[in-house]
User: Fold Phage integrase SAM-like domain-containing protein from Echinicola soli.
Amino acid sequence: MIFYLEEVRADVLGAYHEFSSKKRRFHIDELKNYFLTGGEEDFTLMKLVDYHKVAYANTLSNGSLKNYRTTEKYLKRYLKEWLRTADIFLSEIETEPCLSPK
Assistant:
């Protein structure tokens, strides 16, 4: 049991060093997701939102961008208050509606 915990600790530390070597700030949820997926890059909801914001910033009207920012704000609030995370993998999103917080 102790050896297993030491192995997990070493893996988490290795993931941390890999994130640190990229010389950018990161959230602990990113480190957790990276560790749990074995380092595989996967698309997340907020990455998709950021991509959409950059890709369509010059093509959408100001009113559409305002609505988009409002939707982004509500998504972040939902993730924080209901799912208690900063981001979620697209593969983890359930298609059934969630009626109560965890």
